[in-house]
Amino acid sequence: MVTILIAEDDRNVRLLLGETLRSAGFTVIESRDGKDALDQLDQQHVDLVVTDVMMPHVSGIELVELLRESGYEQPVLMLTVLDSFQDKEAGFTTGADDYMVKPVDLDELLLRIRAL
Questions:
Q1: Is the pTM of this model over 0.90?
Q2: Which has fewest Cβ within 10 Å: 14, 49, 71, 99?
Q3: What are residue 100's DSSP bridge partners?
């Protein structure tokens, strides 16, 4: 079974994503911010990370930088309201494998996750 870590500080978005992914057959771990996500990743194997960019303590950009610097190779999908080309460039340059702008179509999210 594929395990997905959701790093999202908005509780409602995190719950919606978690329920959507669980309904699609994934195992889901929820983190309320980047620091919590790092703690979760230290404790268990994760196949894919879905992260918001703007989070307290450790941003999604910082999270991906730290993961890539430590040799973490699993896919990362950034999910954020930041929609400028510069924002997307920062996400991909940091090491994200995909980038979606909120609000997202949940069916498209599932397609992208399956592709990753």
A1: yes
A2: 71
A3: 79
Per-residue pLDDT tens digits for 77-106: 999 999 999 999 999 999 999 999 999 999
Q: Which residue has the tokens 């994503």?
A: 17
User: What does the chain look like in DSSP terms, one character per residue?
Assistant: --EEEEE-S-HHHHHHHHHHHHHTT-EEEEESSHHHHHHHHHHS--SEEEE-SS-SSS-HHHHHHHHHHTT--S-EEEEES--SHHHHHHHHHHT-SEEEESS--HHHHHHHHHH-
Phi, psi for 26 (deg, rounded to 5): -90, 150
